[in-house]
Each structure stands twice: as structure tokens, then as C-alpha cells.
Amino acid sequence: MKKIIIGIALCFLIFGTNNYSELNHLAIITNVGIEKNKDNYTVTFQEIVPKKEENKIIKTYNYYENSSNSIKNAFKLLEEDLTKEIYLDHLENIIIHSDDDKILSELLSYFQKDFDHFNIIYTENNPKDVMKYSSNYKYVNHLIDNNTSFRSVKKAKLEKKKINIPVVKFKDKKLIFYKYKELKKFES
């Protein structure tokens, strides 16, 4: 029995853990903003940076922005600019400022998976302003009723039915839920 335990311990020492990432080497992205101006897309990342002070954790934020002729290229440029590995598993919202309904097909081509763990939200304001508005990174998420948000819509269903995407805006110096933007049949 002693030899088995020593053998297992040696395996851990030799092989270690191969999916380990140092937290300081990750850019934890909580919100993404996308704005389209003419033929150019501007993509903004909001990175949450947790810092331990005394007995509590303080959250600060960094913002990264880049522009290109497609969302995919803008994301690629941001990945090249950042010295950290982009970590999207804590993504809460994608905030879009655009009248172009085809922007969702650009998003699908980048993410290549269902929108099941983050919300898609439209805004009439600059997405970066919406992200910077509150120090609580889930603030925008709480404006939207989870039962009616875009979060539960699977990619396969997008091609068959019309969908309502929430719109937020500033009113009286407050960020509010404003209306729904209706998208008819979505093309990927």
C-alpha cells in the first residue's frame, strides 16, 4: 500500500497538472462592447482585476479597445495587444451599438457556440460608457429579466423564429431597460 501511495505521489510530481493557468496571466473578460461605424467595428473588452486588500477583495477594471473591418479581426487585434490570455468563461454581456442586424452573424462566426452563458444587449449609447457606468460588473445583467433575455436562445432556434433583444439606455443619469429590439429570421 505504501508503494502505491508513493507511486501516485511521484506521478503528480512528474506530470503535474497540465491545465493549470496562473491567474495573473489571464485577462478575465466580463463584458464586451461592439460598435459599428460605417464599415468599421470597434470592440471593447472589460477586464475584471480582483485585488485582495485587508480581508476583502476589491474589483478594478481595465478596458481594451481596437477597431477593424470585421468583428473577428478586431477580436484578433485585441488578443495580439493583450499580454495576457483572454478568458471568456466569465463573460456576462455583449453590448452592441449598431443598426446592422447582421452583426449577430459576425458574433456567431467568432464564438462558434450557443449564446447560453451570456446576454446580448443593444444600446443607443456608446457600449464602453454602458460598461463603465457601474462598478458592479453584473449591473447591466440585472437590468434584464432573465426569462426574456437573449441568454436562453440557442443558435439553432435563431434561424427559425423572430427574437427580442433587450435595449438599455441612459435616462436621467441612470442606466435603464428601455425596450426590445425585434429581429426577424436570423441568418448565420
Lay out the secondary structure.
Layout: H1 2-15, E1 26-37, E2 40-53, E3 56-68, H2 71-81, E4 85-87, E5 93-97, H3 103-111, E6 119-123, H4 127-132, H5 139-143, H6 155-158, E7 163-171, E8 174-183
Parallel strand pairs: 1-4, 1-5, 5-6, 6-7
Antiparallel strand pairs: 1-2, 2-3, 7-8
Task: Give a written overview of the molecule.
The protein is of the alpha/beta class and 188 residues long. Helix content is 26%, strand content 38%. The chain is built from six helices and eight strands. Strands 1, 2, 3, 4, 5, 6, 7 and 8 form an eight-stranded mixed sheet that branches. The longest helix has 14 residues, at 2-15. It is elongated. The model has no long low-confidence stretch (mean pLDDT 76).
Distance between the termini: 58 Å
Rounded to an integer in angstroms, the radius of gyration calculated over CA atoms is 20 Å
Q: Report the biggest beta sheet as strand number plus sense, adding barrel if it closes.
A: 8 strands, mixed
Average predicted confidence as pLDDT:
76
Quaternary state reads single chain
The sequence of SSEs as H and E is HEEEHEEHEHHHEE
What would the principal axes of the Cα set say about the shape?
elongated
The secondary structure category is alpha/beta
**Ranges with pLDDT <50 over ≥5 residues?**
none
- Give me the count of strands: 8
**Total of DSSP H or I helical runs spanning 4+ residues:** 6
Strand content: 35-45%
Helix percentage: 25-40%
